[in-house]
């Protein structure tokens, strides 16, 4: 995995070139290690997206950095600006005209031309051989991808922008899919994305003046439980102890015992966010979403085998929530990164200490192992820097 015989290595490579005059060169200040990165490294991710990448690529897409060079046609940023990088490599980044159907609608993370344009194949920075990535000394990014960081946000908060965007997009999409006003919500998994989903729910409620949902989370480790409560969960259930019975007590749901299967649940939560994406978590999620509720698949799934009977029987809406784009926000279209930076600025004190580990690139193996074993290391967000 991270041994000399593994597929990941720290190497000297040529500096990535600016693909066009609208690109800039970025020096990372901090870059997070995402669960999708560790899934790829440990060979637990699906191969479905492999044709949409180009190798060799440099990992790292949760990036806060400094602009150190700009192309002649860049007008959005200047050398010296501190920025976060939106990783999506859409038609706007690839300089494709006219943009594809998804990009033209603002759903540019779902771009249908991610193998075309001025750069090689890749759905994101960090999975494209031409852009470089955040686990490096330098990378290149199109000006469309760059957002200036408010002075009030330090690097340890700014580096959370990308995962916070994923959570914001998930929450907004789930609420759009739900008919009426949801009263209860369950977040399965309290890694970075699960915790960010809790934070996003509470931040949006606060900003919009909505009555708070009754919010329950399922966490695997004690330090995750502490963070879930800090960020706004009403209750946190231990993932290792009688989860079904405890959730039933909290919701009044009824449990029934089928043969050779997990319990059948009548009742449950209006909206469930699966922030793990495993076979086990998805099986739980479809059971705990109440009839006519919404299940948002937030965590990156591999190739799980899931019993769809609950989806059919309870008429569930299952929605995939990938990345970010434009959001419908208070009567206008706003890019998720703009909204995220605004909300992070308003709630910055909540996230102090969320980055639990910072490693230099030279200690990349220790950094990855720390991220892979969060219980052993009490890790939440693990980062690297040049």
Quick synopsis:
This protein has 386 residues and is of the alpha/beta class. The protein has 13 helices and 17 strands. Helix 5 packs across helix 6 and helix 6 packs parallel to helix 7.
Could you characterize what this model shows?
There is one protein chain. The protein has 386 residues and is α/β, with parallel strands linked by helices. The chain contains 13 helices and 17 strands. It has helices at residues 35-41, 91-94, 101-104, 155-158, 161-177, 192-208, 222-231, 243-251, 279-288, 309-313, 336-346, 364-372, 374-377, and strands at 23-32, 62-70, 82-85, 139-142, 146-148, 184-188, 214-219, 235-238, 254-256, 264-266, 269-274, 289-297, 317-320, 326-329, 332-335, 355-360, 381-385. Strands 1, 2, 3, 4, 5, 16 and 17 form a 7-stranded mixed beta sheet that branches. Strand 14 and strand 15 (332-335) form a beta hairpin. It is globular. The protein starts with 22 loop residues before the first strand and ends with a strand. The mean pLDDT is 97.
